[in-house]
Amino acid sequence: MELNTEFILQALMESMKGIPTTLIITIVTMLLSSPIAFFFAIRRLAGGEKGNRIIRGYISFVRGTPIVLQILFFYSLLPTTLNHVFNTILGLHLPIFDMNPIVYAFAVFTLNTTAVLTEVFRSALFSIGPGQMEAALSVGLTTGQAYRRIIVPQGLTAALPNICNTTISVLKSTSLAYMMTVQDIMAIAKKEAAFGYNYIEAYLVVLILYIVLCTVVQLLFRVAEKRISAFRRTSVA
Questions:
Q1: How many CB atoms lie within 10 A of CB 32?
Q2: Which of 11-25, 35-49, 214-228 comes out lowest in average pLDDT?
Q3: What's the whole-model pTM score?
Q4: Using an 8 Å Cβ cutoff, are 32 and 106 in contact?
Q5: Average of per-residue pLDDT across 10-38
Q6: Is the CA virtual torsion 121, 127, 130, 135 positive or negative?
Q7: Going by C-beta distance under 8 Å and a sequence separation of 6 or more, which residues neighbour residue 34?
């Protein structure tokens, strides 16, 4: 079997137009999910059976269901239900089906990533001994100041490798955004392949693009880890 090199170049140029959309979904997902996950992690460490039970249930549900089913629920079932409730029953005439599909992508990937990052932050914060908080409080710092100046910087340093893994996972998961008609890398490649059934070449293009993007993300996090390590050595000295 010979690969259609002319189509590969054409599909590559077209699929690259979906890179901004893929990166936007990844960046927005991480920005939205990180503060929520951090709050959940603190709540879990602080105790409180009722709050912990709700957060644990949420994490178990998200991590225990395939993301494909979550996409089908939020993009297919939920809008139909909302349209029936608000427009048919209540007569509000809201433009539910006119919403940009990328909003659904933000919602699905944020809810999914929040569950993962909650455990990442919880384990990172748990690795910091309680003596650090006690020492901070003993010198007159408030709990908020102790978290901001001592606990959070150390926790983020410990969590950075797992945050990198989560970011890469989100980046790869965006290849499913085509199910929500989002014009990302995968959607454009599949559309190009449909004309001549050149799916092997199209998937090869997608493979190359995601390898490049994931490699860039790893390099950026590696630079961040080196800078943080240098900062910590300077601070200790």
A1: 17
A2: 35-49
A3: 0.88
A4: yes
A5: 95
A6: negative
A7: 117
The pLDDT, as a whole number, for residue 235 is 47
**Inter-residue contact 234 to 47 (CB < 8 Å):** no
pLDDT mean over 204-211: 96
- Smallest CA-to-CA distance from 168 within 208, 216, 206, 133 is with 216
Q: Contact 193/202 with Cβ under 8 angstroms? A: yes
Residue reference for tokens 């999914």: 112
Q: What is the mean pLDDT of residues 64-81?
A: 88
Q: Which residue's entry shows tokens 């939205």?
A: 32
In sequence order, what are the residues at sequence separation of 6 or more whose Cβ sits closer than 8 angstroms to the Cβ of residue 172? 210, 214
Tokens of 12: 């590559």
Alpha helices, H only, the chain: 5-15, 19-46, 49-64, 67-72, 78-82, 101-126, 130-138, 143-146, 152-173, 185-196, 199-236
Q: What is the distance between the alpha carbons of residues 205 and 102, in angstroms, rounded to a whole number?
A: 23
47: left (phi over 0), alpha (psi -120 to 50) or beta: left
For the record, the structure tokens of 56 come out as 């644990």
Rounded Cα gap, residues 175 and 121, in angstroms: 26
pLDDT value at position 237?
46
